[in-house]
Amino acid sequence: QVQLAESGGGLVQAGGSLRLSCAASGGTFNTYLGVQWFRQPPGKEREFVARIYGSGSGTVYADSVKGRFTISRDNAKNTVYLQMNSLKSEDTANYFCNYREYWGKGTLVTVSS
To answer: Is residue 31 predicted with pLDDT exceeding 80?
Structure first.
């Protein structure tokens, strides 16, 4: 059974950057299946952030993060990353990694204005 572990969250000032990691254990990411990042802001529903699929060249982003966030993967490390730049207060949320039916427990990102 695949287990996903997110890391890299924390407190950052608006305009700053963070890089989140999603490491898989108990199995490997199938290169051709998508891995997604979702987020859940306080008091709101979970929302899609970004997806990477294929060999890593296929990416999709929510409009709210397009141009600021970059999703990437390191197949050798079985890890997917989310580079977040120009962070805004509205990016504050618990960020989750998703692969097939598997979800991580999330990592909290707090952006102070």
So the answer is: no
